Amino acid sequence: MLNILTNDGKSRRGEITSSHGRFQTPAFMPVGTSGAVKALTSEDLEQCGAEIILGNTYHLYLRPGAELIKKLGGLAKFAGWNKPTITDSGGFQVFSLKEISKVTDDGVEFKSHFDGSTHFFTPEKAIQIQHDIKADIIMQLDECVPYPTEESAASSAVKRTYQWGKRCLEEHRRQSAESNAKVSIFGIVQGSVYSNLRRQSAEHIVSLGFDGNAIGGLSVGESKNEMEEMLALTIELLPKNKPRYLMGVGYPEDILMAVSYGIDMFDCVLPTRNARTGNVFTSAGPLVYRNAEFAGDERPLDPGCDCKVCQRYSRAYLRHLYNQSEITAMVLSSYHSTFFYQKLMKDIRQSIVEKRFDSFRKVFLNKYEQGEN
């Protein structure tokens, strides 16, 4: 599944093969919550350089329903994407919607945020739904705890995630045998910011023999130092010959940090969510283009960017659109930030090939943190 092409220190450049083709790593996966990255088309994503997108199991299960997606040929075909897809298990949505959910050893009970109807995800059902969606890579059901949390609660989540992992694998193997589908499944390491629990969870999850391994439960409120400490500890316990995925991260500086430890895959709503509020990522740091200071600014969002937005439109124009609540502002700014992230990943991969990742990281961050647009 993973072919490591070259290393530069602990950072690694590779490619992952799936039933819908290959994607290059390290990879940033745009989040297509309901089968689309908000404000962008599949053509837009291709133009930006994305090679894999993430679908949200919780949202797709509620609407339009996994059965309909299955009937229409799976998520990739349904979305006109025809490239690799990955689905989360719904575990993080339960964490983020904890006011309307309840976790037991059997699974997760939650209420639909659409109509208040009650639903129950067992580990087996989470896997069945993802198989129906026909994603190339699926995730085990896990329990993500908030930050801060008591060690006892984190320990309970680690044990539950392990038990659910075993059940998910068993159901995945049954589903795969029935459909003859080539689907990969990843396990998820939990443990909050407790070193002993991270170590225990990593050892348990790795022992189950998933196709790849993810590090979950980070970027949920802990400090950057805590995140790096837990990442550094955990990744040393994960197999080097399998994909390593840091879930829900994030900011460019965090991606660069994680790549330095050997992470292969990332996802986050940050680029497009921020863009829809008038805040884009640029090579000189975040730019809040909706601010009054840009009312007459003729420059593009990022003078160093060659995306189609920066080649044609000014900050003044985008600010005008945003202030008029014109949806075009969201479309254009989302395109730019998505392009920025994919260009960052492309540059990271090239720097690893050329054995200069550390220097690339330093140069990038030096300009990025100056914040001069």
Descriptive tags:
373 residues; alpha/beta; TIM Barrel; 2 domains; 8-stranded parallel β-sheet; 3-stranded antiparallel β-sheet; 42% helix
Strands side by side in the biggest sheet: 6-5-4-14-13-12-11-10
Terminal CA distance: 41 Å
Beta-strand content:
15-25%
- Report the major sheet: 8 strands, parallel
Domain count: the total is 2
Weakly predicted, low-confidence segments: none
Secondary-structure element pattern, one letter each:
EEEEHEHHHEHEEEHEHEHEHEHEHEEHHH
Mean pLDDT: 96
Query: Given the C-alpha coordinates, what overall shape results?
Result: globular
- Indicate the CATH topology of the largest domain: TIM Barrel
Structural class: alpha/beta
* Total of helices: 14
CATH architecture of the largest domain: Alpha-Beta Barrel
Number of strands: 16
CATH H-level superfamily of the largest domain: Queuine tRNA-ribosyltransferase-like
Helix content: 40-55%
Q: What is the highest CATH level, the class of the largest domain?
A: Alpha Beta
- Rg, Cα atoms, Å: 20 Å
